[in-house]
Write a structure and sequence with these properties.
Blueprint: H1 3-28, E1 40-48, E2 57-67, E3 72-77, E4 83-90, E5 93-98, E6 101-105, H2 108-116, H3 125-129, E7 139-142, E8 145-148, E9 151-154, E10 162-167, E11 173-179
Antiparallel strand pairs: 1-2, 1-11, 2-3, 3-4, 4-5, 5-6, 7-8, 8-9, 9-10, 10-11
Length: about 180
């Protein structure tokens, strides 16, 4: 071998080594966060009629919602700015964090049942806030919105940021959402 050939082989070996390290580092890189959807915020008022032994309940809070039916987070915030609760969900994991600690649930429906005493269609909420039916369940369009999952979703105030969902069956549950203007 001549000194020229040896030098060429060294450069080639060095280039392959650099390429191998680059590929190895690329394989170890952390993938980007999958859901960078914008945060929807506003205020909500939930009114639940009395049901047997349970008295009527009213809940009012500010909220922040980010994500979709598959993965997301919803935070409820007091008028003083204190976080009341944070629900997080993703494949195989639903949790609720409150001042009492962290609890895990099998589904968003189970979370709402245990936390509020009523099953609310939380998975559908991101779509409803966007003014459209949830794609995972059948719906029926009406003159003032749509019906889905046993709820009547009224969109007549949507231009002003107001969405109202009323459960059709008893006991009556009314969810009013006023969205903050988007920048």
């Amino acid at each position: 071998m001549t000194p020229k050939t040896t030098r060429r082989e060294l450069h080639r070996t060095a280039a392959l080594a650099i390429l191998a390290v680059a590929l190895l580092l690329a394989g170890c890189a952390t993938p980007p966060v999958a859901d960078l959807s914008p945060i929807t915020s506003g205020r909500l008022a939930l009114r639940m009629a009395a049901d047997g032994a349970r008295p009527a309940q009213n809940v009012a809070a500010a909220f922040e919602l980010q994500g979709s039916d598959r993965q997301g987070e919803m935070r409820l915030i007091s008028p003083l700015g204190t976080q009341l609760a944070a629900a997080r969900w993703g494949p195989g994991d639903v949790s609720l964090e409150t001042s009492g600690g962290l609890q895990r649930f099998a589904s968003l429906e189970q979370l709402s049942q245990q936390f509020l005493g009523e099953v609310l269609p939380l998975a559908a909420l991101p779509d409803w806030l966007a003014g459209r039916p949830w794609r995972q369940a059948p719906h029926q369009i009406s003159a003032d919105g749509f019906e889905q999952l046993g709820w009547q979703v009224l969109l007549t105030g949507q231009a002003d940021g107001l969405i109202e969902a009323r459960r059709i069956s008893r006991p009556e549950v009314l969810l009013r959402l006023r969205l903050d203007p988007q920048p």
